[in-house]
Specification:
The protein has 502 residues and is mainly α. 75% of the residues lie in helices and 1% in strands. It has helices at residues 18-51, 55-83, 85-104, 109-126, 128-137, 140-171, 180-183, 185-199, 213-232, 240-267, 280-310, 315-321, 323-344, 346-370, 376-402, 410-435, 446-474; strands spanning 6-7, 203-204. The chain is globular, with a radius of gyration of 22 Å. The chain crosses the membrane at residues 20-44, 56-76, 88-107, 113-134, 146-168, 180-201, 213-231, 243-260, 281-306, 318-341, 348-365, 377-402, 423-440, 460-478.
Length: 502
Amino acid sequence: MNSTDTTLGTAGGGTDRRRWFALAIVMTAAFMDLVDVTIVNIAIPSIRQESGASFSQIQWITAGYALAFAAGLITGGRLGDIHGRKRIFLVGIGGFTVASALCGLAVNPEMLVASRFLQGAMAALMVPQVLSIVHATFPAHERGKVFGLFGAVVGLGAVSGPLLGALLTEWNLFGWEWRSIFLINLPVGVAGLVLGSRFITESKAPRALKLDLVGVALVTLGLLMLLYPLIRGRELDWPVWGYVSMAGSLVVLAVLVAYERRKGARDGSPLVELSLFKVKSFAAGIAVQTVFGIALGVFFLVWTLYMQVGLGWRPLKAGLTGVPFSIAVSAAAGMSVQMLVPRFGRKVLQAGALVMGAGVLLYIWESGHYGLAIAPWQMALPLVVMGVGMGLIVAPLTDAILSEVPREHAGSASGLINTVQQMGNALGLALVSVVFFGTISDHLRPEQIGPAFVDAFQNALGWVVVVMGAIFLLMFALPKRPAQHVEGEQAPVEGKEPALVS
């Protein structure tokens, strides 16, 4: 993806008042994507009970979206560069709306899983255009204000997603039960499609780029060969073909690297700019982002199952329990960027990893100490500690990774950052079958379900602590202080959603 834009239509988009309508539209789309991830987590037990979905299918309902989103992000950004950001954004939001309708009308778990894959693929077309459109529409002196608004939208989405999911599930509007969490996207999507076609200004990259279809195919194949056996392995008693597939995925990814190297030398249009990995801070940051995604993928799914299946809480109770966590993330994220990182640099991110790990350890202790009698207020302290740690990481991490990247590659690098975070998230969701369900017997009596889920939750969180320790060590390879960018020159972070989603 290219960091330079040619704005079509109104010259000097920054002087056009309609740009604020365009901002509201693309921010709504970003909000819709973020809420859609968190809203599904809270409704998972209801989906499983009403649709009869297996635990493997439940994992695919969440992992399928993340996998399709991850595999398509770079492609979505490149399509916007080639064919126009407005055009691809409208295709994405239209397709996302249709996919949401298919999710809400799903007649069986298989249709729901397939529709979630489609929804993730359409989000991969829609989301990368958001900040690209902002970059092309607003002059440099206004972008600080705009990105501040974007941060507020992200914080609002983090808080409102679980609550909205809980309320819609509890209210059972029109007898739709969990289906309303998808169908609510329809009026929002239609409004975004109509208003976007009127108010968004078209923009493209100045140099014609080519779409690397072979690279897209190799990335998708490699991920599927790795993730499918992890998700289905426990259910199928870990067949030999699963291990062969996972080993084969490494071969496919090695072929991808070799192909991308040759394609970059041949026409300068690879899907992945491999030269970026020669930058130490970028390579380390990509590792941090991937591993952090794994931790989040594991935590958010097992947390929902622990509260609603293990403890037997209703969706609204579980949703309200997460509010202190979301508020802590938003508050710490704002402080880290504005006050702490400029003074302490990399140490803020490392402190975040340690604080989040401490919060997880506290949660493990409380879960074991209080057992099935634990109350939401008793979870507040570990969740706030975890939220503070996460907030110290998510906001400044992108700048730290990009600080030593050559400016001409900033667009490609930022797209890759979000892609690997989503890939890590999908991998974490797949690993739930090992670190969580792997400790639960297939034949539990009703009175055994609660204690079994508490034990599995503690086991999964133990692995999250190990991951946070690895992240702390990896952060030593990040620059001590991110380089200061000149306002208006840094490329937009295309496709970048802060790591609040899972």
